[in-house]
Design brief:
Layout: E1 9-16, E2 20-28, E3 34-44, E4 47-56, H1 57-72
Antiparallel strand pairs: 1-2, 2-3, 3-4
């Protein structure tokens, strides 16, 4: 069985906070489509925990719109 290689990020940045770190990566699928992964990394009960969301290019504009609208309600 062939082992899958992790997809290399085309762009990567991170946002460290007091209790967690967020990673933002742009990657490219085998078919050439690009997508964003947002990963939250934190320590929970002494163990590292990672949660990710994947947003594909065709969903990015709508995601950004809803995210910005939702963030506006936090003021």
């Amino acid at each position: 069985m062939q082992e899958q290689q992790p997809t290399q990020a085309l762009y990567s940045t991170k946002l460290p906070t007091k209790s967690q770190t967020y990673f933002f990566d742009v990657k490219e699928a085998k078919n050439g489509n690009r997508y964003v992964t947002i990963t939250q990394s934190r320590i929970w009960n002494g163990k590292p925990v990672r949660n990710s969301v994947i947003i594909f290019a065709d969903q990015l504009e709508a995601f950004n719109h809803i995210f910005t609208e939702t963030a506006g309600h936090m003021k």
